Amino acid sequence: MLDPALPPPLRPEFIDLPGYDPVEPLESIANRIGIDPADVLKLDANENPHGMLPAVRDAIAGVDDYAVYPDPLQVELREAIARYLKVPAARIVAGAGSDELIEVSIRALVAPGQRVVVCPPTFGMYRFVADVQGVALDEVPRAPDFSLDLDAVLGQITDETALVLLASPNNPTGAVLSDAELRALLATGVTVILDEAYAEFAGRSFVSWMDDHPRLIVFRTFSKWAGLAGLRIGYGVFPPAVANVVMRIKQPYSVNRAAEIGALSALDHRAEYARQIETIVAARDDLAARVAEFPWLNPHPSAANFLLCEVQDGRGKDLRDALEKRGVFVRYYTRPDLLARCVRVSMPRPDQLDDLMERLRAAGRDLGFAD
Ligand SMILES: *Cc1c(COP(=O)(O)O)cnc(C)c1O
């Protein structure tokens, strides 16, 4: 109906779209609950607790030509990432976070009427990106211990399935996909996108499988290990023909110049980052062992930089709230599934572990749990 007095009509499918459930900024939570941002342990977004390296900050600050557009062909960046992964540069496409590659890959690979298989609980971005592009998702829930229900996934794959989208390590559960699971999925001929945002912490990647498996695509990011989440820089590793199309249909300047400089510098300083990654992995194993002191908190095994912890009596939300009051921000999920019993805790620096343990103990007491 054309009516000049009314605002434009929206597409009806977007009116009640829930949107992505984002992490609230630190300052805004601190303000809301009246605590000093300096006292906060921000453990809700799997960011690098060491921050980015000073050398990377200097490289970004040292560029004086931000008046110039970035390289839309990403020549230097793709070559540097290719050397890092030991794959040809023609396979790499960088984006504004791997989130952009998730979106563009779905646009490139899922035709109208085709479907995408995901296995919740998993990264919320998959549903968001599919919803926004009108792509139907088939959700195959994980088992109660969060392992993949491989038979159910295989049973869900039909001629209409354009791809299976999995994270390894999975966010928020922390487990990696096994060789046997990936092999079984690829044997069906379906395209598998493996989101390896946490591969650097897991110490393993399936990128080397791509030569033998042309239907495998892998996403990686600088957000987690390199501490560049705020710059938005990630990448996909594709079969060359797919990379070619993804390059042509993505926004040409989505990787900004500061992100490009930051990523190149991070790759140049890999040895220092490797030491940070070691401390984060050690903190994870240390925290998992120490949390076992609390009979009311049960961490799931994790290969990433976070621990998903089940709370006694299913009181995930209560623990989240009690921790928030004590300045510890963790991720909580409102979904009415197994996750509502859990909180996800990102790793702090090793020197913050004692403080975290004290605040956890206090929050547990707030809830009446014995320690
Ligand atoms: C954090 C995360 C990402 C983030 O990617 P960006 O590069 O920051 O867009 C992607 N996948 C998973 C599973 C994540 O947890």
Question: How would you describe this protein?
Answer:
- This protein is α/β, with parallel strands linked by helices.
- It has helices at residues 12-15, 26-33, 54-61, 75-85, 98-109, 125-132, 150-156, 179-187, 199-202, 240-249, 257-268, 270-291, 316-325, 353-366, and strands spanning 41-43, 92-95, 115-118, 136-139, 161-167, 191-195, 216-221, 234-237, 297-299, 306-311, 328-332, 342-346.
- Strands 2-8-7-6-5-3-4 form a seven-stranded mixed sheet, sandwiched between helices. A five-stranded mixed sheet has the order 1-11-12-10-9.
- Strand 5, helix 8 (179-187) and strand 6 form a beta-alpha-beta unit.
- It starts with 11 loop residues before the first helix and ends in a 5-residue tail after the last helix.
- The relative contact order is 0.16.
- Pyridoxal-5'-phosphate binds next to helix 5.
In round numbers, the mean pLDDT is 95
What is the CA-CA span between the terminal residues?
A: 64 Å
Structural category: alpha/beta
Encode the helix/strand succession as letters. Answer: HHEHHEHEHEHEHEHEEHHHEEHEEH
Q: What is the gyration radius calculated from CA atoms?
A: 21 Å
Bound molecules: pyridoxal-5'-phosphate
Strand proportion: 15-25%
Biggest sheet, in brief? 7 strands, mixed
Tell the overall outline.
globular
Q: What's the structural blueprint in terms of helices and strands?
A:
Layout: H1 12-15, H2 26-33, E1 41-43, H3 54-61, H4 75-85, E2 92-95, H5 98-109, E3 115-118, H6 125-132, E4 136-139, H7 150-156, E5 161-167, H8 179-187, E6 191-195, H9 199-202, E7 216-221, E8 234-237, H10 240-249, H11 257-268, H12 270-291, E9 297-299, E10 306-311, H13 316-325, E11 328-332, E12 342-346, H14 353-366
Parallel strand pairs: 1-11, 3-4, 3-5, 5-6, 6-7
Antiparallel strand pairs: 2-8, 7-8, 9-10, 10-12, 11-12
The protein binds pyridoxal-5'-phosphate.
